[in-house]
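User: Sequence recovery, please. Input:
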């Protein structure tokens, strides 16, 4: 996930993202459990939007023999990912770029956390299709990002702002952040997000995480 891509922006990444995303550490444990259901013990995984390294570390700890490829557009966030991984860093190969810069695979599973909400619908669909193309048949794909009923956008954003304020962010800063999200982030409703997964060739789509404005799904390549 990348909230910002300016130099030094990732130095407090772990604390900052934990204030914004309800149950973040539990989310990371969940992806390890879900991935282990369908991934071989020596599986090769793709982590798209790997900056910061939090999900890389969670996956490396969940599957001690999994090999990880992490891709993110921000060099600064990849620097932080290496620091977050620490002694686990040799288990992960990190690449700067987007999905087109990812290796061809085939992979035994993939994740994309807190990233797809930055992409407009057509680019989101193209990205998810490119993930699918790199997966083995039956491989799991786990996503989580902002997704909520757009007809109730203001109510959900207000709830999100209240959550962030309760976590210690000044109320004015939280409200400004929600306004920027309303104006600039191409959020889709959950039905549209699930449709993109289906159109990209995924099946058995199941909601496993719902926390205010965030939703998460697990599915597998048909």
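Assistant: Recovered sequence (222 residues):
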């Amino acid at each position: 996930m990348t909230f910002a891509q300016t130099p030094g922006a990732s130095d407090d990444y772990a604390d900052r993202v934990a204030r914004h995303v309800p149950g973040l550490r539990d989310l990371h444990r969940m992806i390890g459990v879900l991935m282990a259901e369908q991934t071989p013990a020596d599986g090769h995984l793709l982590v798209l939007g790997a900056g910061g390294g939090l999900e890389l570390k969670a996956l490396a700890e969940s599957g001690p023999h999994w090999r990880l490829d992490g891709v993110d557009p921000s060099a600064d966030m990849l620097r932080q990912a290496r620091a977050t991984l620490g002694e686990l860093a040799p288990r992960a190969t990190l690449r700067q770029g987007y999905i087109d810069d990812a290796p061809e695979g085939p992979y035994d599973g993939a994740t994309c956390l807190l990233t797809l909400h930055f992409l407009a619908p057509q680019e989101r669909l193209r990205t998810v299709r490119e993930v699918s193309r790199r997966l083995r048949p039956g491989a799991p794909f786990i996503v989580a990002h902002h997704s909520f009923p757009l007809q109730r956008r203001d109510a959900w954003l207000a709830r999100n702002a209240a959550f962030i304020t309760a976590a210690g962010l000044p109320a004015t800063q939280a409200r400004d952040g929600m306004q920027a999200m309303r104006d600039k982030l191409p959020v889709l409703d959950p039905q549209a997000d699930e449709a993109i997964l289906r159109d990209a060739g995924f099946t058995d789509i199941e909601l496993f995480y719902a926390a205010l404005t965030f939703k998460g799904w697990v599915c597998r390549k048909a």
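The chain is about 40% helix and 20% strand.
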